[in-house]
TrEMBL record:
Chain segments carrying region Disordered: 1-20
Cofactor names: pyridoxal 5'-phosphate
Organism of provenance: Cutibacterium namnetense
MF annotations from Gene Ontology: transaminase activity
Transferase recorded as keyword: yes
Keyword vocabulary terms for this entry: Aminotransferase, Pyridoxal phosphate, Transferase
Name the UniProt record assigns to this protein: Aminotransferase
Length: 465
């Protein structure tokens, strides 16, 4: 019996002395027993949780950590930044100075919007990507993930529709599910979101009486596909959004990590009035401080601050001052350049290894930045079903199904090149290629090479050679 199976039974009546009355426990003929259910779950609060909590699911990435962190397993699964090259001595001195000179301030409650000092520094960081902003329009959050949660919270009711790229960031999909929204995926090609697909899917949803609240997109080096929207495509998407009166939520954690040139213009810089922008220091400094932000119009900002105060009172003050101190006393742009050089080497190693080892028919994206490569396998291979066998061969990845809300992605894999060393990346890709070949051999042996797929596989995402 599963944790959701249950039986119903009549509560047993008792006599005056507290013993069960066997006769009274027998239901009368013709009467229906409609009493409380008895579940096999050990959670006594099982029946008390809100329906919203049903959208809270374990991330496939998090579920892999216990296995993937074993030293013998090469993990190409998680998107954990490599912060080994951070100037930890400088960071340590800065934190010590903070406590010595401003301890009573940095360890106290703060503003629900975030401290003015960090908001000014955030605007300086965004200016590198051509985004001119007012610090008063910035709301500091516990990472951009909380920013996305707050944005969804203030805009969405249960049953509302969110448009998202295809495939989409798994953390965003989990957030949207927790607020009981429906995600409709917009088609992508190698230039990013397809404008006609956005127009068509929003129009159809509205004709069906659905409330479409916003488009969610990661335009720079998308997680998981690695695709970046071209500048022209950004203009087209924004034009369609304005035509449809559709809000755009731009998530930009990887914008500064362009490995092949200067950062691309943000959507927010191209359309300040119709874009809510999410940013983070997790990829360009250190994720452990959990400092992100939302840049939004003033009325939206006011709602975000109220939502922030109800959730946390205020974002972590010490973390804000720690990041501010780092930005003020260290050449952070040179540090970002150092990260870029490191990640470029890792990306190039992964792409070269894929080209050398993957069987014919396998395709993958070629990201210009960020952390990820999106791989499409040949034949009928199911990436989720293959994962346990891959782990036994000491390599881990994230199945593509994690990045769709509608069951697609069975033939897809997200590979991360940000954390393993180049040597480990080579080993991991070689192991993965061996696993894929074994799967193809099994499919051929059982004559499963005719293109048949599981009914849930509605097609892969970007399939880029």
């Amino acid at each position: 019996m599963s944790s959701t199976d249950h039986i119903t039974r009549q509560p047993v009546p008792t006599t005056d002395n507290g013993h069960a009355d066997a006769a009274a426990a027998v239901p009368e003929a013709g009467k229906t027993i409609t009493n409380h259910r008895v579940d096999t779950t050990f959670d006594k609060f099982h029946d008390r949780y809100s329906t919203r909590s049903l959208g809270l699911k374990t991330s496939p990435v998090r579920a892999l950590f216990a296995v993937a962190n074993r030293p013998e397993v090469v993990s190409l699964a998680g998107g954990m930044p490599n912060i080994a090259d951070l100037p930890l001595d400088i960071v340590s001195e800065s934190l010590t100075e903070l406590v010595d000179t401003r301890g009573a301030v940095v360890m106290q409650y703060g503003s629900g919007q975030g401290e003015p000092e960090i908001r000014e520094h955030i605007c300086e960081v965004m200016a590198v990507e051509g985004l001119v902003a007012d610090p008063d329009h910035v709301t500091v959050t516990c990472g951009s993930q909380q920013g996305l949660d707050l944005v969804t919270r203030i805009f969405c009711d249960p049953g509302d529709v969110i448009m998202a790229e295809s495939p989409a960031y798994v953390g965003a999909l989990n957030t949207f599910a927790s607020y009981q929204t429906e995600v409709i995926h917009v088609d992508m090609d190698d230039s990013g979101l397809v404008p006609e697909s956005l127009r068509e899917k929003v129009t159809v949803a509205r004709q069906d009486g659905r409330s479409v609240k916003f488009l969610y997109t990661v335009p720079n080096h998308s997680n998981p596909s690695g695709i970046s929207q071209s500048t022209e495509r950004r203009r087209e998407i924004l034009a369609v959004a304005n035509e449809l009166d559709l809000l755009v939520v731009e998530d930009n954690p990887y914008g500064l990590l362009n490995l092949d040139g200067d950062p691309l213009p943000t959507l927010k810089s191209m359309d300040p009035d119709n874009v809510v922008y999410l940013g983070s220091f997790s990829k360009t400094f250190a994720p452990g401080f959990r400092v992100g932000w939302v840049l939004s119009p003033p009325f939206v900002r006011d709602k975000l601050v109220l939502a922030q105060e109800s959730a946390t009172l205020c974002p972590p003050v010490f973390s804000q001052f720690a990041v501010s101190s780092y930005l003020a006393h260290w050449d952070w742009r040179a540090q970002v350049d150092s990260f870029i050089n490191m990640y470029r080497t890792r990306r190039d190693t992964m792409l070269a290894s894929l080209a050398e080892t993957m069987p014919e028919g396998t395709t993958w994206s070629r990201p210009s930045g960020g952390f990820f490569v999106w791989l499409t396998m040949p034949g009928t291979i199911d990436s989720a079903a293959m994962l346990p066998r891959a782990v036994t061969k000491l390599v881990a990845y994230t199945p593509g199904t994690a990045f769709y809300a509608d069951g697609r992605g069975q033939r897809n894999i997200r590979l991360s090149f940000c954390y393993p060393t180049p040597e480990r990346i080579k080993i991991g890709v070689e192991r993965l290629a061996g696993v894929v070949r074994e799967e193809l051999d099994i499919a051929e042996t059982f004559e499963l090479t005719d293109g048949r797929r599981h009914s849930r596989d509605l097609g892969p995402g970007p399939n880029l050679a």
